[in-house]
């Protein structure tokens, strides 16, 4: 998913965010700025991190007024520093004031995710293991949050329930067994779709391999069992480990040899990156 694709699918979500913030009018802005006036404001970084979402930030102002001009001095994926001038926004001062919070909400959230992801991805550098996100995203923010993960150096797991097969514990319970869940998925899905299944112990793993699963998710297993699982899967299936993976505890997983590590924390626990619009003035 690239920046252009994201924006093509994002306009309605951005408009909904603007409608949430402006139900009828911006009463504060209209009280102090009743008429058009051309102005400019600076986008300033207030914390070290990785910037992501500049296109979304810009789009907020464009949707309010297509005449708004936004100039950036950085690009998505760049490391940024406290005090750095990242860009300037020029246009109707009423638009700059009314769009400020929505634009910053997107940019701060996405940059926070990219920053946190980069920190974990750096810990996996050289291991051959890829860092994946999950579907544990903020409602109506998934397209933005998963894009931010990619900017930060991670990879996207399935985007939604239509995107791939992942048989978890409750699916296995509904089917009756690991073997039956895999069999039913293979029967239902086109042959081009891979079948991934979550297992919690080595017995489930062996049953999944015998059933022909393509990817085995090792969920909340001990490090010793995961190492044994990787050995059992070699040449038979890809491996992914998951289960409360964070920046603080991922070090224990770096030498296990799994193909993928998935972390819901990338999108549900990353703090924002502090950014601000300052120095608004007429021109």
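-> sequence recovered:
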């Amino acid at each position: 998913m690239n920046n252009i694709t994201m924006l093509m699918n994002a306009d309605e979500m951005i408009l909904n965010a603007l409608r949430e913030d402006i139900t009828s009018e911006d009463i504060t802005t209209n009280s102090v700025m009743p008429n058009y006036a051309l102005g400019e404001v600076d986008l300033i970084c207030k914390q070290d991190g990785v910037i992501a979402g500049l296109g979304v930030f810009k789009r907020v102002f464009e949707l309010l007024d297509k005449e708004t001009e936004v100039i950036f001095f950085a690009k998505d994926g760049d490391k940024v520093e406290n005090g750095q001038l990242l860009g300037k926004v020029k246009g109707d001062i009423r638009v700059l004031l009314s769009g400020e919070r929505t634009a910053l909400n997107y940019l701060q959230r996405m940059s926070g995710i990219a920053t946190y992801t980069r920190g974990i991805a750096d810990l996996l550098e050289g291991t051959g293991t890829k860092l994946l996100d999950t579907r544990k995203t903020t409602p109506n923010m998934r397209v933005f949050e998963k894009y931010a993960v990619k900017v930060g150096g991670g990879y996207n797991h399935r985007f939604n329930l239509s995107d791939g097969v992942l048989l978890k514990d409750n699916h296995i319970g509904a089917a009756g067994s690991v073997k039956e869940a895999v069999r039913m998925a293979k029967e239902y899905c086109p042959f081009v779709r891979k079948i991934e299944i979550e297992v919690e112990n080595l017995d489930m793993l062996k049953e999944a391999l015998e059933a022909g699963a393509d990817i085995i998710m090792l969920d909340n297993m001990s490090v010793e069992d995961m190492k044994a699982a990787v050995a059992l899967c070699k040449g038979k299936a890809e491996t992914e480990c998951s289960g409360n993976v964070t920046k603080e505890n991922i070090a224990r997983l770096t030498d296990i040899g799994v193909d993928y590590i998935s972390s819901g924390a990338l999108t549900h626990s990353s703090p924002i990156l502090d950014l601000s619009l300052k120095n608004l003035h007429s021109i």
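The chain has two domains: 3-119+271-282, 122-268.
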